Amino acid sequence: MIPSSFDYHAPTSVDEALGLLGELGGDAKVLAGGHSLIPAMRLRLAMPGALVDLNKIAGLSYIKEEGGELRIGAMTREVELERSALVQERYPLLADAGRVIADPLVRNRGTIGGNLAHADPANDHPAVMLAYGATIVARGPGGSRDIPIDDFFVGLFESALEPGELLTEIRVPTPGAGAGGAYLKFERKVGDYAVSAVGVQLTMDGDTCTAIRAGLTNVGPVPMRATEAENALASKTVTDETLEEAGRAAAAGCDPSGDLRGSVEYKRDLTRILFKRAVRKAMERAKGAAR
Amino acid sequence: MSGGNGKSGSGSGKHTVTATVNGAEQTRDVDPRMLLVHFIREELGLTGTHIGCDTSHCGACTVLLDGTPVKSCTVFAVQADGAAIETVEGVAAGAELHPIQQGFWEKHGLQCGYCTPGMIMTTKELLDRNPDPSEEEIRFAISGNLCRCTGYNKIVEAVQYAATKLREGTDAADASDQEIQEMTA
Q1: For position B46, what pLDDT does the model report?
Q2: Which ipTM was obtained for this model?
Q3: pTM of the predicted model, to two decimals?
Q4: Beta-bridge mates of residue B93
Q5: In this complex, do A103 and B143 lie within 8 Å of one another by their Cβ atoms?
Q6: What single DSSP character describes residue B39?
């Protein structure tokens, strides 16, 4: 299977890439890790007239803490997140996801920026970043702007990025004292998309959940938060009863479609279970965490 | 704007790609849409790299791109300009099989053999990075390479055999270095 013809551009700076995107217009696609785009091009689901390849741009790949945030360059490969000691130690929700995104070979090429900019509700980073309350940094011809993650996912494969804009950085708030997170994914086999997956980031004060955000993967047409489930736990003592209530709210609030991975009922119930397990795991980590 | 215009940076038409493949520099003019696996198989005639699923799932086409195992069906050849590529043809030292290949031979790590080149390339990077992997680490590392024959057990044994053999080789080399140092001291 061979993609249709396209012109290839490999800029060496973000400014050059933005210039090319402006020049080429809507016919151009941005190539990051390529592990969503190239398969789509081979199947001719995507037939861009030009590709702007970001792989030759230096300085878009980094993982660092700065200003109370984890700052991740858009071209950081999944494998770099997976093996980052900083992520392992301080961002367990992100670390969990890092081991279950696609498969190890895909993670050697795939990038976090591409995973998010693709705005695929089946991708894992959207739910993770919704749970963290991350910020997306985008650069366009007019400069840089911050997009709260809650405003980033607009529709199926549609983000708030404007034509000609590039996602350049992801900013994750550094978890404070009493915080914990977890990502639980149920998949048929390594490399498959989730049947359902739940990302939870919470803060505990004793048995009271003082803050919680949760993101859901592949159980709706748009990456989504489990808002009602969050409300069922926020500022409450977490008991088996409140947790079950929250799990049911997550199941009721999602919008899965029945397919080869399972029926609507099955996916809703799986989401209920995964939500509960993810909260329990996040709570354990919150209690064990030094910060 | 078509036909070998020698451009490697930007634009339409063919692009010149120069890559070091199994230690030898290779230059070809290619269409941007040519996938790396087709470049390797059809332009260079190195057909040890297999096309399995053609949908980025199976890992049969795995090669090392600047030392990293990647699915060569999911990289464009133009992207490999300036890179070092290693394929299964580059693994053996002449007629002598590499310890990883010996492992697959000795432990029957294959039946049909279709996934084997990809398995070997993934294993090579694993053992470079982690010379003494646990069974779990081996299974995790090869989880992007699908095998439909073996049930993976024999492949895991092959990797363990290779790891041991490579470590012994290193130890033996260290020992002989030490002997030489002692002799010359």
Answers
A1: 98
A2: 0.95
A3: 0.94
A4: B96
A5: yes
A6: I
